[in-house]
Amino acid sequence: MTKLKTLTTAIAFATFGMTATAAMAQQAPAQAPQGSAQAQPFEQGQQSGQITDGELKKFIKANEEVAQVRDEFSQKLNQENDQQKAQELQMQAQEEMQKAVENNDLDASTYNTIAARLQTDPELQDRLSALQ
């Protein structure tokens, strides 16, 4: 049962998996997320150039909302024993996280790019901290 809960939680947040790591980047920059899943958004971020302060401000707000959704659904998933209901919760969580990002005038790609760059870019981490 514990494995099911762990697996369903992990799957539920795969779409926005970097949100947790982005938040942790400020607290523990030495912790690295799984490499291959995050390499592609990072490369896209490098190619797209500089991230503006406006985008960072939008990211901060979106990340707060995504974290609230993630926390809410993590609790629900940990209490759910039925696999079908857990999958439904996962889909609902992904939809709500997507809405949270879009409601802050970002798309998932930009959000994930910023989150990925926060993992390895101390300057960007400093800029984000200054805007909070």
UniProtKB/TrEMBL annotation:
Residues 41-51 have a biased composition (Polar residues). The keyword Cell inner membrane does not apply. Residues 1-25 form the signal peptide. Residues 23-40, 84-95 have a biased composition (Low complexity). Keywords: Signal. It holds the Pfam family DUF4168. Residues 53-127 form the DUF4168 domain. This is Uncharacterized protein DUF4168.
